[in-house]
Amino acid sequence: MLQGKQRRPIWKVPSKTAIACLKVLLFVLICLGVSTHAISQEKCVSTVGNQRHQKILGDLQPQRRKPFVRQCSGTCYFESYVSVLESVLSRHYGQTLAISRPHLFSLLILEKLRSGYLFGMGKLTYFSQTALEIDLISSGNRHYMRNLVNQKPLVLRGSKTQSQIYKEDLWMRQVHHQVAALLSLRMKERFPKGHRPTKEHYFAQLREILNEVLPEVEQILRERLAVFALESYLGTAKIFVKNDFFILSFEEISKNEFRMSEKTEQAVKDHLISGQEINLDYFHILPYVTIKDGRPGFLELPSDSTPLTFEQVMAKKLGGGHSIAVTDVILDGNGRIEYFVARNTWASRNKTDHGYHYISINYLHHYKADFVLSHFYLKTAEPINQSPRHAP
Questions:
Q1: Which of 111, 124, 250, 313 has the highest local Cβ count within 10 Å?
Q2: Which of 136, 132, 111, 104 is nearest to 121 (CA)?
Q3: pLDDT by residue (tens digit) across 319-349?
Q4: Residues 312 and 325: beta-carbon distance below 8 Å
Q5: Range of the domain at 131
């Protein structure tokens, strides 16, 4: 019986040389701290379609890619300020720099406990039938952050991978939960279950508790910060930062189509081309985020209905005030700014495009009562101390 040709095997066992090469490549990747997860999450934002001859300013000045963060609830002001300030520091010192968020976050918690912040803007609820809720960190702003970073030297490091950012995110959530739980426990010890104290008694007890737990909180933060080895940091730098604002004015270029004034647009473009990000405070309405030209993340006014008012949005819990970092712009066919390209602080959630939103100028014009565009600059900045004895 005749036999046909012997079939060539589809897969061949790698030779010893090939296996050795693969091992060397794997070792190099590990040394460089590269992870496939980090690579997949750090895709560059490409041009957003050409149906209307739009282009991203980044085509002229490539964006410096940065991993995105998953903020703690209410800390958008913290994350956006840090991101913008990192771009300012990187430009000033001539190298890519990142701020140690755990160290600055620890300073944020201590400052709010020491300053009596919880008696003002902080969110507190009375002892309820379920549990006492204490929010230490939300409801801040760029002015609060400016005062915070000007207090002590910042702990700096080089660029961070996405996995390192996620590690910091997790650390911050756990620390806030631990400190908030400690305060809640102390409050429960003072007030029996079901007892509703008067406002005066409540705050008097809270003030005593804050004074009592402050040393314990400082110890918690020191122990928690020990997980971040000092050797991984570049050094510390004492700076004095100032906030400034872009003068905002709009002009109607066609019916219901608005742009910022040409003078403001040029100031924004020049700032971004220099490598510095811009801080944007605005009113975010999640249902208004849509898909355009097959790309998600566009924040637009609705075309088929009357835009909701501030009161309607808040009543239906569809959005609220938000703070983000503008990294680029999308220009229309006439070279005017049609969208801000903004790195959000929600990771890849909430209808973002790999962590980014594209915010329409028309949208910002409509809700301009809650629209602030600001930038930061260094009034003074000492040289980086590259051999700190300990992190502040």
A1: 313
A2: 136
A3: 888 889 999 999 998 999 999 998 887 766 6
A4: no
A5: 98-233
